[in-house]
Batch of 2 targets.
Target 1
Amino acid sequence: MPFDPDTVSQDFVKLLSDIAEIPEEKITEDSALKADLDVDSLAIVELFDVTETRWGVRIPDEDAQALRTVGEVVDYIRRRA
Amino acid sequence: MSGTEPAVVVTGVGATTPLGGDARTTWSALLAGDSGIGALDVPPRWRADQLPVRIVAAAAVDPSTVLSPKDVRHTDRATQLALVAVAEGWSDAGFTAPARDGGGPVDPLEVGAVISSGLAGMTSSIRQYEILRDRGAHGVSPYCIPMMIPNSPSAQAGLLVGARAGVHAPVSACAAGAEAVAYGVQMIRSGRAKVVVAGGVDATIHPLALAGFARMGALSCRNDDPRHASRPFDTGRDGFVLGEGAGVLVLEDAEHARGRSARVYCELAGYGLAADCHHIAQPDPTGAGVTRAITAALRDAGTSAAEVTHINAHATSTPRGDLAEAGAIRRALGRHADHTCVSATKSSTGHLIGGAGGVEAVLTALALHHRVAPPTTNLVDLDPAVDLDVVGPVPRALPSGPVTALNNAMGFGGHDVSLLLRSC
């Protein structure tokens, strides 16, 4: 899909909601994927796989490990897409 | 069993089969003489036209239409079918929520899960290999290994019901579902668990399985007549029809069931296990292992051949296997076999591999509960070498009063299992 920086946050939250089965209203940019949302390590791999496909952003493993919150992932996509 | 061990009863049933998406629909369709067998309907990349066998018994309800998208993405189709059957069984047993610490319907430390398969994970293994080949390692699902492991249906079932007493998956090909039930009985008798979901599943409809079984000469080649292809004990039988599905019993300590006023279908009164030690795939033509399994089940239940009224036979519709089992039943029951009606339900469901033992245990429990021996739909001309009273295309009433039934299962590798169920 075409990159639209204004909707990345909204689209990523929807994606995360679908993959981890968390209601969208419980997800904020400050939410930590593991600590707050209890997204397990396999689901995070799946989430980044889909993110890469959707926005064409390659996320190397060392970067993936450093991305802690929803906001950090969204910023990463905005910078690299 | 010893006199001090708890009796085990069946308090719930669950199934998803080629005849229906739940146990009740499956049972009704079976009695109505429906067939779950049809033409293979697969993507063009499978090149089905090049397969020697193009008939299968696919699940009547695609489990991916019932489960959440997350469950579907993270599990093999066999696990999906198991989850559907386990959810039904758990609910049918009267449990409205999973076992959990402090306040759940049952203590999780007293709940077990034993869901076996022959080849669970097979199609996921192949699919993930295709992804690896075509897109590289980065494309492989992080759930690849959890999807592939053959204990996955049991592990996911355990997660679903909250089982912490133990989760097991004895693997014994087409006898696996029945062996799982036997293992579940053991868990309760030994005091490890009060409630166990136990049964079998498989989902192997794939060109590789069809080609592999066909190369063994195990499959029916009636591509133009799928409905009549599976014909156990009939002179016209020419092999089994590959199917998919799951069936589970909820086994329960009888005292525990009484304590919560649970509805009881029947008692799971005994089991017998044996091995042919004859050939990796062919049944021992003498049927000695099956005879020993039946005899052991009778002894375990403290009953005799004279009490057996009904048998749900393994009878897959292969020329050799059906004969070996028929002879084994006759030898185990002797003259009492004259008064035992034998049903071969694979005539309607096809052969669900590891799922067969689970589904047929469910059908045997329902036969006792409803007092009806289900039909052998395609039995037109009984093989004269089969010296048994086989129920034909019309269901037959079972007598009132105490009724005892056997459910046999045999698997590649020479595994022989016989379960003994008794009316309550």
Note: The interface with chain A takes residues 68-70, 73-74, 138-139, 141-143, 146 of chain B (CB under 8 Å).
Target 2
Amino acid sequence: MSHVNATTFTIVVVLFLIVTGAGFAAARWRRPTTMMHLDEWGLAGRGFGLFITWFLLGGDLYTAYTFIAVPALVFGSGSIGFYAVAYTIMVFPIVFIFLPRLWSVSRVHGYVTPADFIRGRYGSRGLALASAFTGILALMPYIALQLVGIQAVLTVMGVGTSSANTFVKDLPLFIAFLVLAIFTYVSGLRAPALIAFIKDTLIYLFVIVAVFYIPTRLGGWSHIFGVAQAHFASISPATKKPIGTFIPPSKSVGSTQFDFASLALGSAVALFLYPHAITGTLAARRRSTVTRNMIYLPLYSVLLALIALFGYMAVADPVTTANVKKSGNPQLAVPYLFQHMFPSWFTGIAFAGIIIGALVPAAIMSIAAANLFTRNVFTEFFKPDASPELQTRLSQWASLVVKLGALLFAVELPHTFSINLQLLGGIWILQLAPMLIGGLFTRWFHRWALLAGWLAGMVFGTLAAYNVSNATASHWAASSDIEFGHSVYIGLSAVVLNLVIAVVVTVALRAARVPEGADETQPGQYTADPDEAPAPTPAGVGAAP
Amino acid sequence: MTQQATNGRRPSAVAAHPLISAGIAILIAADIFFALYTPIYARLTPKLGDFPFFYWYLLIFMPVTSAALWLATLLQKRLGDTRGTQ
């Protein structure tokens, strides 16, 4: 720890301590009569209004990895990184179509997880298990990437890089994670909800300051865009092609417009299929809390667009470019940019914002994964009469196990592996679209057809992602491949295959009159807006309203 | 494509207010389309200040999305009020 800046370090530590205090105090916030119910521990009493939900969802969806990876992609490849901006534009109108329906039906039936809904809608434990499995599988590497985000900041701070011993080297990361694990265990969803206020305030602060201040140091926006345009047009010696693109080209130079659009669309549909996004939604008090949030959440997208532009600022700053080149890790572009541009005290605020920004989603993701395990695996298959207390206790422990697993991922495996898994996670989670989004509108699909489509999508998506190669990597080189002459996001082509199989098999199974399973939901329940939370049900899913 | 429009038990809301229902559908569809159809905005000019078209288009689109969804919720409310439900 030789070249640690004392001011930066102190500010990060102080802000971290404040967040730790808030995490534990959250158990007393909006205090329930008992914390030992999943509606309380896992959904914070389903009582959050417009304001808290806005902070919670914003803090949940815009993860530390976003703050690191999106500008890193822009830094490395140019305009294709802005797919993330188009995606956060599209996501809210898309979600506006189906999310209020999911909220309503979950509220009426007391569903805690998306798999609870699948179970109730199709009367199929197998299909519910498939969706729970997909959710947990997709969340694990996502949590691990939050840690990668924290590590990127710690590396640039110079903390803990001096030792060869893994444990000593990552000690700060272990401490941060231990604190996170304990306050999540104690306070449940209330902890990330309260911390989200601190996170969002810090992030809005440093992004707005950075957007107005850094260009004045770099010769203005025209210089930044000019340097970026020239940089991405230059020819890479390794591939004999341009390094990147400044505007998505229509012909296949690097990343095409089709690629850009399919990545944006696939990611937008996928976002609210992630269990942690649904957890944040189901904690809302009223249906209108969800719909009205879709109006205000695009404010965060503005933030993301500005964060993406940091990638160009890093390109335009020779010192940052040199630092990144020396480290060989483009993920460090934004931390290096801040360190070079800001006075050390403000760097501390920005770094603390990114670190805390990782803790909020990591907490919600671990709660969501734990609830899936408790409700749709353990209670469903092993102990159908599990009491709410037992379910909650189990979720608390499961959240610890999930986080420990993610920690091992982040520390033991190469980061490229986590990033590849995250890429796969997006492809996998998208395979839930036909059963989840489809199921919110129609019961036409047959449960076994959905299972067949899901399996096909999962296998195709995984193999296709594995087989993508480029000049520097033989596998997992990108999230897009060529289908019918266009470069397409694999998740999107996989879900189209999934849907086609679901339709064909449904027609066949219906013709053969295979039993469809019971549907415990009724049409009116998808638009219902009950004032009161559902009465706590003793045994998991399936209670009548 | 709205909550009310696809509510199987009360198709009358859509039938009774085809204009409002269509309005909501168009607002949502347009919002998605103009972000999805990349050829519209994958261009350098016209610039706004120092920002190439591609970049300022995406930035401006955010408040536009908010406004479109705000209008859609207002229309939904009218659809809902005439039905006598939330």
Note: Chain B touches chain A at residues 1-4, 6-10, 28, 31-32, 35-39, 42-44, 49-52, 54-55, 58-59, 61-63, 65-66, 68-70, 72-73, 76, 85-86 (CB under 8 Å).
